[in-house]
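pasting for ref
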Amino acid sequence: MGRYTGPKARVNRRLGFMVFENAGAIRAAEKKEYPPGMSQRRRKVSNYGLALTEKQKIKYFYGLRETQLRRYFGIAKRTKGNTSANLMILCERRLDNVIRRAGFAQTRPQARQGVVHAHFQVNGKTVTRPSYSVRPGDVITLRNRPNLKEIYRERMTNKAGEDVSWVSVDADEMKAIVTTLPTNDDVSLRVDVGSVVAFMSR
């Protein structure tokens, strides 16, 4: 699941949510605003099916494999506080997600690719793991290569970023600083996490 290469619009239609943000997938999903395979009679979705759909939203949105999501779930359970909130905060702290929200990339798969190709540094050290968990005080910058700065400056000019209260972005210096840990209100994905936690606790 970490790198999904199938039809993205089909996933958007099945989940009823634009988990893939690239323009082609959004346009294709808008042409058919019903789930795939709907030529047949619809069946009532069970609670199990609803919870599974919510879990799939998290996996596709953040680019997680089942084992990664299970690992996050285990950490969230052991961490003090609400398990649902802890789980989503762990997902938000992923380096590829922070890069996307800061505006260095237009989609999370694009941000993931940039990390894997060693385009980014954290506190001056090159990081190639998209799952790297950021901490307050971390400074995310590009490697000192003119071609990379030109590419990413254009992306940031297109305003692909979002308003993120816990990340300070300096577009001129091409850097992002993690000021605090995100809270549950800062989570970018709206999903019924409670049903996912209940589903994974079985």
